[in-house]
Structures are given as structure tokens and as C-alpha cells.
Amino acid sequence: MNQQFKWLKQRPTKGLAFPTSREGATLTYIPKYQSVVLFGGICNGRLNEIMIFDIQKDEWKVQQTQGRQPSPRCYHSGFYDESQNVIYYYGGQADKGRSLTDFYCLSFQSFVWKRLFLLESPPNRHNHTMCDLPGMEKIIFGGACLPEDLMYNDVWIFNYSAIQFTNQQEIPGAVATKKNCKGEHPAPRQGHGAVVYQNNMFVFGGKCSDETTQLYKLSLDNYQWKRILHLGKAPGTRAFFSTSLIKDNVIIFGGIDNVANKVLNETYLLNLTDYHWSSPFTAGPIPSPRYSHCSCQIEDIILIMGGIEQTYCSMDMYFLSQGSINQNAEWEQLKEPTELEKQTNDAANQIIMEGKMYLNQIEEAMMKERQKITDLQKEVQNLQEEADNLDTHIKKQTAIVMGEHQKASQNNKNKEIAIETIFLMIKQEQTLTKQLNYKCQQLEECIQNSYPLLHTLDQFYQSIRQIQGSDPADLKVKKMADQFANDIQKAKEAQLESLSNIYAVYQKFTALSNRNEVELNQWRDNVKDMNNDFEQLIFETEHD
Description:
The chain has about 550 residues and is α+β, with helices and mostly antiparallel strands.
């Protein structure tokens, strides 16, 4: 009695939904709900639907989600965090073979998608590995990048402990840090296998330049790479196989031989205590050769589905478990069948083939319908993006209009202050003009009142000038009269000059008042035009 492995094949019979054949998808086990989540992959096109298999009910269902879901992709990585009840997905390959670098998470309670915002992200990649670390951290290694046609051997630590779950579509808090490693670095590669065991990461296989069966170990204490010498017969060079860790054993299945280009369905085991490779005996219906299939662990049981050989493999569920098996009894089941058994088997095979053909037809019809749903989801996503862009544009235009409104309001306020100042100046000028007119009227009255007196003085002066004789008194009077006449003439000239100056000042005040009145009217017209422009801008914004 040896401790060996056994395959169990299962195809759910309940429910109407069943996943289409695909490669490059991810399977994620959700212990809390005893469910398995299938996401992404590629068949006729890349997919981004979420399908959930309920282990207890033995049925699949298509899960509807909310929020902006990830773009269709394949060859990505994913994991489930039980403390947050959230599934995370990273990277992958999008349409036209373009590699991705985005992180998404999906709440398994509300089924709302969120995209993670990282200040620094690993370069775009697909066909990489992401392994568990203690706490809320994962380690990312290797992968390929298209269309740049690159392969990586870099190491990144993804920490999601500080994620802040908000109502926003993009949430912060996650951090990705590149580690500078030393030692014997493995060559850049994709489609490899990796596990973390006792604070070391082990890497094997993959598509790379050296095409060897070398096993590598990275110490997570000092990030030092080291080549490991293994015991036993190691599997040949291969890539795109599934890798699982059960206790202290690494179990790989399937893949494609890098040298012979042969698709495989072998199972190998690597014991990490002594680095010994072995090919254990496996009983039960062994899955057909395949690579790029998806797998996950349900406690100590390995589940694989899908993948591709020459064509896409079926999505039948294969469970690999370890237990006590009587190898001789298994071989007894392989004895030569009787003729009746052969006929029965042939008839059964014929029925199975007809059933498979019918199932393939159903799968093709379902695939077409799912493609239609995917196309509709893309259209909805595009419409949502257009609506978001339009909303952003409206917000920007509204901000611009409000800014212009604030500027216009400030300008109007300044102009109102200027108009009030001009009104005050005009009022002051009007007051001064009234005072000046009053003074001019008083001066004219004084001049009019002085005319009779001047006339009398002129007559008196003329009579004095007619005095003849040489009497000293007469001569003195005549001299005084001449002096008085000169003073009167000077007084007249001074009055005329003062009157002329006053009239000139009056004309200046009148001209200044007229000019201020014209400028005031111009200010009024400008304010009126600005109000009309602002009302037109508000009208256009509201109708856009």
C-alpha cells in the first residue's frame, strides 16, 4: 500500500450555465462560500466574465457584476483574500496581444469592481507568477511583455494592506516595490511555475533562453538567488504547466515540451525537503494532454480545467487527490476485456461521441451567445466611458464659466466703483459750476453797478481837465485828476482780465463735464455688453 494520487473526473449536471472551452483563465477557490471562481481566458476571443461553481450545489452560474469591469484578458494572475472577502487580479494579455499592468479587485459580497491606483506599477506583463507571502503581500516574478517582445526575471512585492475601499471607481493604498536581487539569477522567462515554501521562492521551467530543467531558489530574507541540485529524474523542459504546493510537495501537471513541442499530461512531484523529483503513480481518468490550463487548490485537492492541445480541451473538472491506493487493484482493472465488454464499450463510446458532438454544438451556440453578451458589455462600457468623459467635460466647462462669471462680477464691481466715482466727480463739478456761475453773476452785477459811478467820474474828470490857469492849486487838482483817471483805467483793465480768466475757467469746467458725461455713457454701454455676453454664455452652457 503506497501513498499515491488519484484523478476524479466530474462534469456538473445541474444548472443551465457551463463555461466555454478556453485557455489562459484563472480559477480561484473561495473557502468561505465553498465556491470556485472562473475569470477571463481566451477561446474565439478574450473573455472577462465571472462564473462561479458552487461545490455543494454542483452547478455553475454566470455572476453579474457592477462597476467598471476589467477589459477582456487571458494569462493573468489572481488570488482571494479571506480577511477582505475580495478577489484580486493583475496583468494579463488584452486584445491584439497587448500586455497589461493594471490591478483590479472584486468584492465577493457586493460584486462591485474597483481598480487599484498605484504610484508605481510593475511593467506590463502576462504569463507571470504571483505567490503568497506572509501577511497581505504577494510576490510577482517573470512574465512576457507584448508588443515589446520582452521577457522578465524581475521580482516585485505587492502589498495591499493599506487599501482604502471607497465609493470611487479607482481606490488608493496598494504599493508595488521592485526588489534588487543578487546571486545566480534565472534567465527571463514566461509560463514557468513558482511556489513559496519556508520563506523561499522556488522557480522551475518556463519558456526561456536556456531551456533547462534547472531549479532556482530565492531567499526572501536577503533576496539571494541560488541554483539547486536536485535528485531523481526531473521532468523535461516544459512551459505553461500548472503548479501546486501541497504540504512540502510541489506538484506539476501538463504543459508543452519546449524542445519537441509536444503537449504533455504527465504528473511530477518535487519534495522540497530533499529536492527529489519523482513521477508518482496516478489512478483514475487522467486528463488529456494540455497546456495553458487553469488550476486551483481546494485544501489538499488540485482542480484543473480547460487548456489547449491541438484544439481547446473541454471544461470538464479533474480533481487530483492524494490517498492510499492499491496499485495492484488498479492494474487489475486494466486487464483485457471480453468480447461482450468490447461491444458494450464500443456502443458506449459511440453514444459518448454523439453526446460530445451534441455538447460541442451546444458549447458553440453558448459561445456565440456569450460573445454577444461580451460585445454588449463592451458597448455598455464604451457608453459609460463616453458618459464619464461628457460629465468631465461639462464639469470643466462649468468651472470655466464660473471662473469667467467671477471675473465678470469682479470687473462689474470695479466698473460700478468707477462709475460711482465719476458720478461723484460730476456732482462735484456741477456744484463748482453752480458756484462759478453765481460768482460770475455777482461780478457782472458789480460791474453793472460800477458803470454809473464810472460815468460820473469820467464827467468829473473831463470838467477838471477844462480848468485853465497856472494857479498851483488848480495844477495840483488837475494832476490828481490825471492820476485818478490812470488808476480807474488800470482798474478797468484788471476787471476785464479777471473776467476773461473766469470765463476761460468756466469753459474748461464745461468741457471737462461734457467729456466725463461721454465717458460715463461709454462705461454704461460696456457694462451692458458684458451682461449680455454673460447671459449668452450661461444660455449656451445650459443647452450644451
